[in-house]
Design brief:
- The protein has two domains: 136 residues, NAD(P)-binding Rossmann-like Domain (Rossmann fold, 3-Layer(aba) Sandwich), CATH 3.40.50.720; 180 residues, NAD(P)-binding Rossmann-like Domain (Rossmann fold, 3-Layer(aba) Sandwich).
- The chain has 13 helices and twelve strands.
- The strands form two sheets. A seven-stranded parallel sheet has the order 8-7-6-9-10-11-12, sandwiched between helices. Strands 2-1-3-4-5 form a five-stranded parallel sheet.
- Strand 6, helix 7 and strand 7 form a beta-alpha-beta unit.
- Helix 5 packs across helix 7.
- The chain is elongated.
- It binds glyoxylic acid.
- The site of glyoxylic acid has 6 residues, from loops.
Amino acid sequence: MSSTRRVVVARRVFPALIDALKQRYEVVDNQSDADLTPEQLTRMLADADGALISGRERIDAALLAGCPRLQVVSNIAVGYNNIDVDACTAAGVAATNTPDVLNEATADHAWALLLAAARRVGESERFLRAGRWKRWEFEMLMGAELHGTTLGIIGMGRIGRAIARRGLGFDMRVVYHNRTRLPAAQENGALWMDAEGVLRTADHVILVVPYSPSTHHLIGAPQLALMKPGAVLVNIARGGVVDDAALIDALRSGRLAAAGLDVFENEPQLNPGFLDLENVVLTPHIASSTRATRNAMARLAIDNMDSVLAGRRPAALLNPPVWETAARAARVTPR
Ligand code: GLV
């Protein structure tokens, strides 16, 4: 039966993976990096059994109502704020994501941003490229100290813990906030505090929380005011966790030394205020973007989709209750 299943690949992924998919499914491969409108996505999924999507495709009740055969939406991302998971459960659609396989690459990128922002790497390079380096100066482009300082992590999931481990290599003390305190064995010496405590205590703060209504503008003007003067803030979580306008004010005034940002409100549009600032390092939502990691993410997403379409519970199921529902069973219909 699986040979007649139709799956949609909503955004371009490695062609070799698509070729393998074509061995077992009828594949509608969008082969595009362009964002789809909700109407385009609904049309594309209208007759699909499974969908591989990125974090840019929004899955909600309205879309699901137009896709009666759809059994699984498989996100090629760990964050899943693009998916209304409750709507999927109500509609009988399994929703999956790609945890774990991107922990290390994403933690590396958080550190790339922290190092670059603290040590003014982007600004220094722009200085050189503009031909402005005329002589060596004792106080030239002095940055913020990292080694021996206190690293704060807000969101101590698997990626947060990978970031914390790297901090120990820099002789940093690690403080963290997580809704639930980790078991001591997983803390690895890091100290739990409430979020305010982390902001007040840490010399540098990295944000790794999922985006939801409860984390919208988790860091705004009042929270930035709690941070140490001269601190560095890194956001690899999601746009919207930080109030970008408030951050721009804190960077412009020098209240924060610098920021490193991979995610933005309304991305790919940037608040133009960032572009005028020297003390911010900006990357276009690429924290997990290495060939090996993107390959692992796509493979896990395909594996999740394969499992559901074969009637097996997938490894990374976001809505376990769906597995028991009659609504899910009703979607499993032969072509
Ligand atoms: C990337 O942002 C992801 O959620 O995987």
